[in-house]
Amino acid sequence: MNAFGRADTHIFRWIFGVTAGRDCRIIKYISKSGDGHVYLILGVLLCAFDPKDGTIFLYTSLLAYALELPIYVILKKLFKRQRPCDLIYNFRSHITPSDKFSLPSGHTAAAFLMASLLAHFYPSVAILVYIWASLIGLSRVMLGVHYPSDIVAGALLGITISMLSLSILV
């Protein structure tokens, strides 16, 4: 294993160690707040209650996720990075991963994509939504299904796709 991989694994073990032997209910809820249906509900609600900005927000979000999802799948299949629970001997994550590979983190990509769009259309919530997206990424490491570099890659993917979508539609 190269120096980067060793450092990534070391940081992973340190962060995951915080949750070892503990109830992870709150961390699981934070992670679940990054599930896709939450974003759709938010987009529809913003469209309904803020017809001016909410409508373009919804269209931009739909375009962004239409671009992000296939890129995410291609990257997962291209890198084929094993998850910590599949690679680290005698290790058990707190949850069962949704797919086989870990790079990039899809939850983190989606969270940062949404945070970037929300910050663009509603600047007053920027700090809050970026903290929320960061907590989703951190929760994925704390639950044992991603390495820290997976989170960074997911965040970069989400921000990049949101900026691309904004440049197309806004």
UniProtKB/TrEMBL annotation:
Q: A Gene Ontology molecular-function term?
A: undecaprenyl-diphosphatase activity
Which superkingdom heads the taxonomic lineage of this protein's source? Bacteria
**Membrane-traversing stretches:** 56-75, 110-131, 151-169
Q: Name the SUPFAM superfamilies for this protein.
A: Acid phosphatase/Vanadium-dependent haloperoxidase (SSF48317)
UniProt-listed InterPro entries: PAP2/HPO (IPR000326), PAP2/HPO_sf (IPR036938)
Tell me yes or no: is Membrane among this UniProt entry's keywords.
yes
Q: Which UniProt keywords apply?
A: Cell membrane, Hydrolase, Membrane, Transmembrane, Transmembrane helix
The record's catalysed reaction(s) read: di-trans,octa-cis-undecaprenyl diphosphate + H2O = di-trans,octa-cis-undecaprenyl phosphate + phosphate + H(+)
Q: List residues of the Phosphatidic acid phosphatase type 2/haloperoxidase domain.
A: 57-166
Q: Does the keyword Transmembrane apply?
A: yes
According to Swiss-Prot or TrEMBL, what is its membrane topology?
Answer: Multi-pass membrane protein
Query: Gene Ontology cellular component?
Result: plasma membrane
Q: What is its EC number?
A: 3.6.1.27
Q: Where is this gene product found?
A: Cell membrane
Please state what the protein is called: undecaprenyl-diphosphate phosphatase
Q: Which organism is it from?
A: Aliiglaciecola lipolytica E3
